[in-house]
């Protein structure tokens, strides 16, 4: 079948390949190109069947409409223009380019020297004339229709959010109840066994590591490794093809719909700070060949070279209005067409850079905040990059939330017994106000975490003193060296019962700290079942048993603890407050928060600066109480990283007696306790007390809150 562009003046505002019902409109951006050819291919992408120059240019958008081109059509672009690397231009029509707006990608990138715009073996000023199409992935025209069956965004408040960071393959590859054919896929991710696990655990949102299309890195393939995490995006609109069991992107939509039906939001980890093309010595796959000088930030001193603040070789130029539009169009596409609930932005400090420096009032943040489609979704920043001034924890504007690595590090330090940590621990438990309590931001600005994909798992934090990344092929030089970990006597797995019990208690303490703290908790997939990566703290290239969750080693007691601890958090409004607690008293004299020494006196400067103090006690009440009947509300929490300690339980806000409702040092941490010594907090444990005699939940409690209230022991003794 032969195709030709319509002579009609058919100009659609959308970029990409848009099927109209009778044909397809193609549009792509390039400011410096001289000609852009649309190339059509056979269904398998192996044979080029047509090549036609895009006939229309309006501004810097090149476009054309072809009647009869249907969904499933495979395509790419070739772009002619100046090949002038010293001035930032690297056009080479011998290189087939992926449409930046492609909604689906077909094929696998087959690494070959022909994929490079210059000749490998020579410098990057040379020009390579080989055709890259046989080795290149292609775009596929899509039909946007999908039966969402009434699906709507959940938009759960941040105060009710518990995030679960996970990987599509890592979550499903070894799960015994996920069908073999679905393991490693979107359909496996939303299969009944996975949904059942997540709903029983009690998390409210899954945060998926990158699922936008990314290729494997050449240097990893040469080492027989793979790009497992996916932080090398090439297609910002296309689901990763290796996560699909068929050639239908509707599998991704099916996953989102099933998660929503189970009350779980879907957050995507997105990489808009760089692409898979690397530095000027990288391949020409899409953006570089379309318009290198527009899509990338180039060195102001020598535009032959890319300017890199990401550590990956290039930096996407979001200061360019059309590149910014691409990012915003991508975000809107995932929200509107794919029903995504939120985004976690990798190396988000790069997105906030203007004139090379971070600007919290920059155009990227302003553009998102004024966009009606994006303003209501969850926005999470990884608040750093590798450039100068890139560490910006607490520096992002509302409505962004931020990963808080200070929480991770200080909680690890406190529980492994480092001295002088009580003041830092107090900051983390109350939402890290020093970082976030400004510019009308709330205490949910902090995404609290104990571990994440990058670093030790929770089990490895208590099992290894040092990293063990030998399998990555870099002589254990990669990955962080300062993990604030403690093997507790033996490096790695052990049969020693005492060490195993000590590790179990410390994991309880850290998980309980996460779920008792103000802010938004995030749990790394597998931490709840005791998953280990064998001490590998940089498993980015380990698409194997190192990077996958080991479901055969399921730690049932710890899983049960996590389930109950999450439910406990959900039952306690004191732990889920939007505004920061300052310690000030309300108009009626009620204390919102107060810190105590073990003897019952208030903390003073001497105690805060006591390098030997290992006990932190805090009373927390609700910041707003609606009636006198709720003045018995509040929790008294004791975090004891030292030995056995007798704590004087305070009288506060009319509360005179307490009952213990959580004790991480007990065999059953959620028994209703009545010990002979009511204030005894055993070594390396957390004790949580509720007002004794608070036999009814608050008058305005929901049915679910009432059920949780009684479940956790707030009843007449």
Describe the structure.
It is a single chain. With 717 residues, the protein is α/β, with parallel strands linked by helices. Helix content is 21%, strand content 18%. It contains 17 helices and 30 strands. The strands form 8 sheets. It has an 8-stranded parallel beta barrel. A hairpin with a 2-residue loop joins β18 (353-354) and β19 (357-358).
Largest sheet: 8 strands, parallel, barrel
Indicate the low-confidence ranges by residue numbers. Answer: 626-631, 706-717
Silhouette: elongated
Rg, alpha carbons: 28 Å
The proportion of strand residues reads 15-25%
Distance between the termini: 82 Å
Mean pLDDT comes to: 92
Structural class label: alpha/beta
List the strand order in the largest sheet: 12-13-16-17-20-21-22-23
Characteristics:
717 residues; alpha/beta; eight-stranded parallel beta barrel; five-stranded antiparallel beta sheet; elongated; disordered C terminus
Question: Could you write a compact summary of the structure shown?
Answer:
This protein is α/β, with parallel strands linked by helices and 717 residues long. The protein has 17 helices and 30 strands.
List the SSEs and their pairings:
Layout: E1 16-19, E2 23-29, E3 35-41, E4 48-53, E5 56-58, E6 61-67, E7 74-80, E8 83-84, E9 89-90, E10 105-106, E11 138-140, E12 163-166, H1 168-172, H2 186-189, H3 192-201, E13 205-208, E14 212-213, H4 218-222, E15 235-239, H5 250-261, E16 265-270, H6 287-295, H7 321-336, E17 342-345, H8 348-351, E18 353-354, E19 357-358, H9 363-370, E20 378-381, E21 401-404, H10 405-415, H11 422-429, H12 433-436, E22 446-449, H13 458-461, H14 497-516, E23 520-524, H15 556-571, E24 593-596, H16 605-608, E25 615-620, E26 635-640, E27 645-646, E28 658-663, E29 680-681, E30 685-691, H17 703-711
Parallel strand pairs: 12-13, 12-23, 13-16, 16-17, 17-20, 20-21, 21-22, 22-23
Antiparallel strand pairs: 1-2, 2-6, 3-4, 3-7, 5-6, 7-11, 8-9, 10-11, 14-15, 18-19, 24-25, 25-26, 26-30, 27-29, 28-30
Helix pairs in contact: 10-11, 14-15, 15-17
């Amino acid at each position: 079948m032969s195709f030709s562009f319509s002579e009609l003046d058919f100009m659609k505002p959308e970029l990409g390949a848009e099927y109209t019902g009778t044909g397809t409109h193609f549009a792509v951006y390039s400011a410096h190109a001289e000609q852009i050819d649309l190339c059509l291919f056979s269904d398998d992408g192996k044979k080029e069947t047509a090549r036609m120059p895009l006939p229309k240019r309006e501004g810097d958008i090149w476009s054309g409409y072809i009647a009869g081109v249907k969904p499933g059509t495979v395509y790419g672009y070739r772009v002619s223009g100046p090949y002038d690397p010293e001035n930032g231009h690297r056009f080479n029509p011998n290189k087939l380019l992926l449409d930046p707006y492609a909604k689906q990608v077909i094929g696998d990138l087959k690494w070959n020297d022909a994929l490079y715009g210059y000749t490998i073996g020579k410098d990057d000023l040379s020009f390579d004339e080989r055709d890259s199409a046989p080795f290149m992935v292609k775009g596929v025209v899509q039909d946007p229709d999908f039966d969402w069956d009434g699906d709507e965004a959940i938009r759960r408040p941040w105060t009710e959010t518990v995030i679960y960071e996970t990987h599509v393959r890592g979550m499903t590859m070894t799960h015994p109840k996920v069908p073999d054919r679905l393991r490693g896929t979107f359909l496996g991710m939303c299969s009944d066994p996975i949904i059942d696990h997540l709903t029983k655990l009690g998390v409210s949102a899954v945060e998926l590591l990158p699922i936008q299309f990314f290729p494997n890195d050449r240097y990893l393939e040469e080492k027989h490794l793979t790009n497992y995490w996916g932080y090398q995006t090439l297609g910002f609109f296309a689901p990763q093809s290796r996560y699909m069991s068929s050639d239908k992107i509707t599998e991704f939509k099916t996953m989102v719909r099933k998660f929503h039906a189970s009350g779980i939001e879907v957050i995507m980890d997105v990489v808009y700070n760089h692409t898979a093309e690397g530095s000027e010595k990288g391949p020409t796959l899409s953006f570089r060949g379309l318009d290198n000088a527009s899509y990338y930030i180039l060195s102001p001193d020598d535009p032959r070279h890319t300017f890199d603040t990401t550590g990956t070789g290039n930096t996407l130029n979001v200061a360019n209005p059309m590149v910014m539009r691409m990012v915003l169009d991508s975000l809107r596409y995932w929200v509107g067409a794919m029903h995504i609930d939120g985004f976690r932005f990798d190396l988000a400090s790069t997105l906030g850079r203007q004139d090379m420096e971070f600007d919290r009032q920059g155009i990227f943040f302003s553009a998102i905040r004024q966009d009606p489609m994006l303003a209501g979704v969850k926005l999470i920043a990884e608040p750093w990059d590798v450039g100068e001034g890139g560490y910006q924890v607490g520096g992002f504007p509302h409505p962004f939330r931020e990963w808080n690595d200070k929480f991770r590090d200080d909680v690890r330090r406190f529980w492994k017994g480092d001295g002088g940590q009580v003041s830092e621990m107090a900051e983390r438990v109350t939402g890290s106000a020093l970082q976030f309590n400004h510019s009308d931001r709330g205490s949910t600005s902090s995404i609290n975490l104990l571990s994440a994909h990058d670093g030790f798992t929770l089990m490895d934090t208590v099992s290894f003193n040092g990293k063990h990344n030998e399998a990555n092929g870099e002589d254990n030089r990669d990955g962080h060296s300062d993990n604030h970990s403690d093997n507790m006597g033996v490096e790695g797995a052990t049969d020693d019962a005492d060490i195993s019990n000590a590790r179990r208690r410390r994991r309880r303490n850290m998980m309980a700290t996460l779920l008792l703290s103000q802010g938004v908790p995030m749990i790394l997939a597998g931490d709840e079942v005791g998953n280990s990566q064998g001490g590998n703290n940089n498993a980015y290239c380990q698409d194997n048993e190192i990077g996958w969750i080991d479901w055969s080693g399921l730690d049932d007691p710890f899983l049960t603890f996590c389930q109950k601890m999450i439910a406990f958090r959900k039952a306690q409004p004191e732990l889920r407050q939007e505004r920061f607690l300052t310690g000030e008293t309300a108009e009626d004299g009620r204390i919102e928060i107060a810190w105590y020494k073990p003897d019952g006196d208030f903390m003073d400067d001497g105690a805060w600066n006591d390098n030997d103090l290992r006990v932190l006690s805090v009373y927390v009440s609700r910041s707003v109480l609606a009636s006198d009947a709720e003045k018995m509300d509040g929790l008294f929490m004791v975090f004891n990283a030292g030995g056995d300690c007798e704590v004087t339980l305070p009288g506060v806000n009319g509360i005179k007696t307490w009952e213990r409702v959580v004790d991480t040092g007990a065999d059953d941490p959620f028994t209703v306790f009545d010990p002979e010594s009511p204030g005894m907090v055993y070594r390396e444990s957390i004790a949580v007390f509720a007002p004794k005699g608070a036999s009814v939940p608050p008058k305005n409690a929901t049915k679910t809150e009432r059920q949780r209230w009684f479940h956790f022991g707030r009843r007449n003794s």
